[in-house]
């Protein structure tokens, strides 16, 4: 697990203006006192606990997510007080008498921004949940010798927040940290970033193409490649994706690990007044660790992109 507390100044303490959605395994704002996510057990019921018990998860003493993270029970009768107890992980007590180490899924994230327009970022379909813990083992990936929590994907999971028309629009800026998987089965593309959505279609998403090993910025509503780059990238690798969507004649651009991939100044999104969702869609049937952190600004952060990118890259050890 990532060792040591977070820096005394958290990302949204310095760059919170305009942030509409912020979800993560780490605490992003000092003044935020809420939960990180709602979790649910999945497995064989114990004598006290059941397989569908739910709880809200707090950050641990290092402001991160671990088996030591306290929980507040949602389902009556749950006696566990930490994530480790909730899943009956090895080395933790088993107050709910679960018959074996359990799997824990994420039902929704809670929004950490000061703006309360959005309260949560929820899974799109009941029963299609990312795994935070599998059989008592926290889902992590290793970056630079440190372990970081990355949710395990099983089958077409996706998160979304539905918002009234007129709230979202352009300009907008998104930051997403995710571990990129090669799309499974007959799927060619994998969405890897937060995106606005119009008419239920991802409207400005960075996606991976497994035929070229490249990332592109794409509008799936209008089948329009907004921007692309010829740089190639490996899968089973974590990346930071940044998108900046503005109206002509301002800059529209996307970045991977703080490196500009492509930009233009002649783009205006034709559905910018129809955005009514923020989405992160994993609909390609890939399996493995993916989502780690996402921040959506309902504004231009063009002047802060380099600094925000660097904050994220420093924390996750990305290069």
Fold topology:
Layout: H1 11-15, E1 19-24, E2 37-42, E3 54-57, E4 71-73, H2 83-86, E5 103-110, E6 120-123, E7 130-134, E8 137-138, E9 140-143, E10 146-149, E11 152-153, E12 158-162, E13 172-180, E14 189-191, E15 195-198, E16 201-202, E17 205-209, E18 214-219, E19 224-228, E20 237-245, E21 252-256, E22 259-264, E23 275-281, E24 288-289, E25 291-297, H3 305-316
Antiparallel strand pairs: 1-25, 2-3, 2-5, 3-4, 5-6, 5-7, 6-12, 7-8, 9-10, 11-24, 12-23, 13-20, 13-25, 14-17, 15-16, 15-23, 17-18, 18-19, 20-21, 21-22
Based on the model shown, name its key terms.
319 residues; 3 helices; 25 strands; 11-stranded antiparallel beta sheet; mainly beta; Jelly Rolls
How does this model look, in words?
- There is one protein chain.
- The chain is mostly beta strands.
- The protein folds into two domains: 107 residues, no CATH class; 179 residues, Jelly Rolls.
- 7% of the residues lie in helices and 39% in strands.
- The strands form five sheets. Strands 2, 3, 4, 5, 6, 7, 8, 12, 15, 16 and 23 form an eleven-stranded antiparallel β-sheet that branches. A six-stranded antiparallel β-sheet has the order 1-25-13-20-21-22, covered by helices on one side.
